[in-house]
Design brief:
The protein is an alpha/beta fold. The protein has six helices and eleven strands. 31% of the residues lie in helices and 23% in strands.
């Protein structure tokens, strides 16, 4: 299994790096792909070094992940390469995961129509073709969505499970169960 997380300036750290952390703990190859640069600065000024730049090899992954954060999510939506890979993954039934403001790219790609999704409150107005759910995470067919930073771990565990890897041991080791009390 291989996952890719797409990065643009202004990404949300928790949403992007929690996915990378959880998948790597589970020994799932997870690459951080810079869309424009090998060093990308988050919405809160954290500089992160990418594993590689986006190229055609991204299409070989099993899941593509879009973090939220502003202006990162808007920049991803404006990048035709992002829209193209979303359409390709959707056509092939591959997993697509987007959190917080990230699902706005799903709308632009035309792949969320009549599908249930969640997102950061207020962004559902930018996704009129989907069916908004007021939930922490949401799965509809091959699309996984998450609400926002507080949902980052559950979102990451959901991706892991959909890739066929149990999240039980990792979530216990990370003491996730204490959040559920």
């Amino acid at each position: 299994m291989k996952a890719i997380v797409l990065f643009k300036e202004g990404f949300e750290e928790l949403e992007a790096l929690s996915v990378v952390d959880v998948l790597r703990r589970a020994d799932v190859k997870c690459d951080m792909l810079g869309m424009d640069s090998m060093e990308v600065i988050s919405s809160h000024g954290v500089k992160v070094t990418m594993d590689c730049l986006f190229d055609e090899s991204a299409y070989e992954a099993d899941v593509v992940v879009l973090p939220g954060g502003m202006p990162g999510a808007s920049s991803l939506r404006s990048d035709q390469r992002v829209i193209d890979i979303l359409k390709d993954f959707n056509q092939k039934g591959k997993w697509i995961a987007a959190i917080c403001a990230g699902p706005i790219s799903l709308e632009k790609a035309g792949i969320i129509e009549n599908k249930q999704f969640t997102c950061y409150p207020g962004f559902e107005n930018e996704i009129p073709s989907g069916i908004y759910q007021d939930s922490f995470t949401c799965i509809d067919q091959n699309i996984i969505t998450g609400r926002g930073p507080a949902a980052a771990l559950e979102f990451a565990y959901t991706i892991l499970e959909k890739l066929g890897v149990s999240s039980t041991n990792i979530s216990q080791a990370m003491q996730y169960h204490y959040l559920k009390k």
